[in-house]
C-alpha cells in the first residue's frame, strides 16, 4: 500500500532528523585568553588531544583583546581540518560592544567547524545577565538579518537558585537555552546536588525555548591570585560524582567541561602548555601539577554519556587515577593569603579505580594506609595524609593477595614548609 509506505518513510525521516537534533555532545571550555603565544600547531595539538578522549569541540571563551581575533582564525582553520567543532562563548566580564560580537560571529559563521544547534549557530557566554534583554535581542536580530540565526545559551551566573529559573526566562525573552556554570559546591562542605541543573533544564521547555541545556562538569576550583581572589571549593570527589550526575541523573543536551585550559582556576584537564604565560602568581601553584589523569577518567564518562546506555562501557585496562594536594590544609605558607574555604578539603589522597575485574586498592602515604574493595568498573576511596614529611603516595592494585600493578605519585607531600598557598592537586595515573 503506497500510502502506508509514504507515512512510514515520513516517520523514518522525522525520526532521523530528531536523532540528529538531539545527539549528545561534549565540549570543553577553552580560554582564548591563554592562546596569546599559540601557533596553529598548538591549536591542532589541543584539538587532537581533546578528540582522543571523545570531546566534540571547544567553547571559545573570548575576551575583547584584539590578538584573540587573529588566534580565532587559526583555531577555526585547525578545527576545519580536523572535523572538530567550535562555538563562541563571550566572556561578558569584559566590556563587549554588541557590534563587535556580531562581527566576530559573522567572521566565523561560514566555517564548517562552527557548531550548530537545531540548525542555528550556537552562541554562549560567561555572564552577561547585567546587560538588559534588549542587548541580547538586538545582538540576535542583527545576526538574523545577516542570515545567521543563532541559538543563544548563555551562562547567566547570577542565576544559580533553582527558584529563579522561570523568572530568568520571562525576564530574558531573547535567550533560547542555558549554560549552568555552577559546577562546584557553593562555599560549603556538602556535595553539589543537581537541583539547579534540573530546574534550568526544565525551565527551557516550560518557556517553550528551543535551545540546549548545557551542564558544566568540573574537576576542581582553586585560585590564589591576590586582591581577594584566593579561594578553594570542596572538590575532593567532585570529578567522579559530577560526571555520574550528568550521565545518569541530568542527561543534558551538552556537557561542557570546565575547563580545558583555565590554569589559574585549577580546573584544567589538558597538559600544561609551557608556552602559556600565566603571569607571576599562577605558575606557583600550576607548574608541575599535572591534571591529565582527569582527562583519562573523562574519556570513560564521555563514551558512556554519548552511548545513552544504562551502565558504563566495559573497561579493558586496569587503572587507578589519584589526586592529592602537596601540603596539609593547616600549613602556613611564606607568601599569599590563606584561601577562603581552606578548611573544607580533606587532607587525603583520593583515588578512582577503573578495573577489568574486582580488586583491592591499597593506598599508602608514609605510615598511613587504607584499602578499599573496588568492584569491576569504577570505584573510589581515599587515605588520610601522613604527619611525616616528604612522602609520595604509593598505589597498588591487589588481586587475591597478589600485587597486579604498583605506582608512586611523583609529587611529595610537604608537611613542614610551603612557599605559596597551593590547594591545586597533583593528579597521578597507575596503569
Ligand atoms: C525578573 O527577575 C527578577 C529576579 O529574579 C524577578 O523578581 C522578576 O519577577 C522577574 N521578572 C519577570 C517578568 O519575570
Ligand atoms: C508553551 O506552549 C504551550 C503549548 O503551545 C502553551 O500552552 C504554553 O502556554 C506556552 N508557555 C509559555 C510560557 O509560553
Ligand atoms: C566516594 O565518593 C563519594 C562521593 O562521590 C563519597 O561520598 C564516598 O565517601 C567516597 N567513598 C570512599 C570509599 O571514599
Ligand atoms: C619542603 O619544602 C621546603 C621548602 O621548599 C624544602 O626545603 C624541603 O626540602 C621540603 N621537604 C621535603 C621533605 O621535600
Ligand atoms: C579483597 O580483600 C578481601 C579482604 O581481605 C578478600 O576477602 C577479597 O578476596 C579480596 N578481593 C580480591 C579481588 O582480591
Ligand atoms: C602528565 O601525566 C600523564 C599521566 O600520568 C603523563 O602521561 C604525562 O607525561 C604527564 N605530563 C608531564 C608533562 O609530566
Automatic annotation (TrEMBL):
Highest rank taxon of the organism: Eukaryota
A Pfam cross-reference name: Glyco_hydro_71
UniProt keywords, alphabetically: Hydrolase, Signal
GO terms, molecular function: glucan endo-1,3-alpha-glucosidase activity
Signal sequence, renumbered to the chain: 1-28
InterPro entries: Glyco_hydro_71 (IPR005197)
Protein name (record): Glycoside hydrolase family 71 protein
Species whose genome carries this gene: Lentinula raphanica
Amino acid at each position: 500500500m503506497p500510502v502506508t509506505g509514504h507515512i512510514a518513510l515520513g516517520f523514518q525521516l522525522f525520526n532521523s532528523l530528531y536523532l540528529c537534533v538531539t545527539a549528545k555532545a561534549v565540549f570543553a571550555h577553552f580560554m582564548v585568553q591563554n592562546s596569546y603565544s599559540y601557533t596553529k600547531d598548538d591549536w591542532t595539538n589541543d584539538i587532537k588531544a581533546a578528540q582522543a578522549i571523545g570531546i566534540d569541540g571547544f567553547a571559545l571563551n573570548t575576551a575583547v583583546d584584539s590578538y584573540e581575533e587573529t588566534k580565532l582564525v587559526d583555531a577555526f582553520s585547525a578545527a576545519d581540518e580536523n572535523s572538530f567543532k567550535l562555538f563562541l562563548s563571550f566572556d561578558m566580564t569584559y566590556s563587549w560592544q554588541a557590534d563587535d560580537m556580531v562581527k566576530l560571529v559573522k567572521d566565523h559563521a561560514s566555517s564548517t567547524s562552527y557548531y550548530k544547534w537545531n540548525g542555528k549557530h550556537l552562541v554562549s557566554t560567561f555572564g552577561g545577565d547585567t546587560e538588559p534583554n534588549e542587548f541580547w535581542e538586538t545582538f540576535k536580530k542583527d545576526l538574523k538579518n545577516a542570515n545567521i540565526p543563532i541559538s543563544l545559551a548563555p551562562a547567566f551566573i547570577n542565576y544559580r537558585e533553582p527558584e529563579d529559573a522561570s523568572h530568568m526566562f520571562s525576564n530574558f525573552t531573547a535567550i533560547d537555552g542555558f549554560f549552568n556554570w555552577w559546577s562546584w559546591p557553593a562555599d560549603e562542605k556538602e556535595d553539589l546536588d543537581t537541583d539547579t541543573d534540573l530546574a534550568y533544564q526544565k525551565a527551557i521547555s516550560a518557556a517553550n525555548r528551543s535551545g540546549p541545556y548545557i551542564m558544566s562538569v568540573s574537576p576542581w576550583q582553586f585560585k590564589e591570585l591576590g586582591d581577594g581572589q584566593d579561594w578553594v571549593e570542596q572538590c575532593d570527589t567532585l570529578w567522579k560524582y559530577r560526571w555520574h550526575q550528568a550521565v545518569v541523573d541530568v542527561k543534558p543536551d551538552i556537557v561542557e567541561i570546565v575547563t580545558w585550559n583555565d590554569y589559574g582556576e585549577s580546573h584544567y584537564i589538558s597538559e600544561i602548555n609551557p608556552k602559556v604565560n600565566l603571569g607571576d602568581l599562577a605558575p606557583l601553584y600550576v607548574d608541575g601539577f599535572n591534571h591529565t589523569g582527569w582527562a583519562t577518567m573523562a574519556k570513560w564518562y564521555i563514551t558512556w554519556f554519548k552511548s545513552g546506555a544504562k551502565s558504563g562501557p566495559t573497561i579493558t585496562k586496569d587503572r587507578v587515577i589519584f589526586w592529592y594536594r602537596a601540603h596539609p590544609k593547616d600549613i602556613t605558607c611564606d607568601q599569599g593569603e590563606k584561601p577562603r574555604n581552606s578548611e573544607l578539603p580533606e587532607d587525603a589522597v583520593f583515588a578512582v579505580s577503573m578495573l577489568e575485574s574486582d580488586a583491592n586498592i591499597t593506598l599508602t602515604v608514609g605510615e598511613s594506609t587504607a584499602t578499599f574493595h573496588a568492584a569491576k568498573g569504577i570505584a573510589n576511596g581515599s587515605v588520610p595524609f601522613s604527619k611525616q614529611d616528604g612522602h609520595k603516595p604509593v598505589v597498588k592494585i591487589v588481586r587475591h593477595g597478589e600485587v597486579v600493578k604498583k605506582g608512586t605519585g611523583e609529587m611529595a607531600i610537604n608537611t613542614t614548609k610551603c612557599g605559596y598557598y597551593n590547594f591545586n592537586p597533583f593528579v597521578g595515573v597507575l596503569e
